[in-house]
Amino acid sequence: MSEILTPPPADAPAERPREKRAEKIVAALEALLFSSARPVKKKDLAEALEATPEAVAEGLRLIAEGADRPERGVRLESVADGWRFVTRPEYDAMLRKFHDVSERSRLSLAALETLAIIAYRQPITLPEIQEIRGVNSASVLNTLFEKKLISTAGRRSVVGSPFLYRTTPDFLVRFGLKDVDDLPQPEELAEDFAATVGEAPPAGLPEAISAPAAEMDEEGDDEKPFDQEDDGSDEAADDDGDDET
Fold it and tell me: CA 39 to CA 51: how far, in whole Å?
């Protein structure tokens, strides 16, 4: 039996046509991006402007092209699957002085190491992270949670059902990445290291982020081995923030 389609009510409002001309939306598009504190996705821009995705894409191209000049103080950046205006890096010192920002807040080496492992191996469990690092990483994970750089992503279907962890959109924004596919590959890191210091990189992070956890040697650092109880004191240095991009 064929389905009977019910026609819409006669008084139903007709859908407004979408703007197809990029030049008609460029000014409004620029205003939206300038007023937003976070990157805005193309689909959200199209919805707000009642424009086609093609018009928005062309508008973004025109704005980026116009801002990509040495006499401009800002540029358009694609990050975390969205778009935003950012100041040029050469004005960083001046802006910090003007806004009285005296110090850069940074992640500790332990937090950066853990975050790199999660970014390259996600989704990944805490036991897997600890097997790679060879030290208790629970307090480091808490720090990354507080900074909203990681989140949970379900549970692993093994004994104990440990949580899986992954990076967040805030991670992409902080490090200026469109998505995790923009992360450099381990072989690229090894080549860059070799080109910089003139020798092969030591066994460590490039291999750790790509190899299965079961294959990794347990090398310690200044933290406690992960089979000891963690009192949270090893990550006190993380409480001072992280790098802004």
Answer: 18
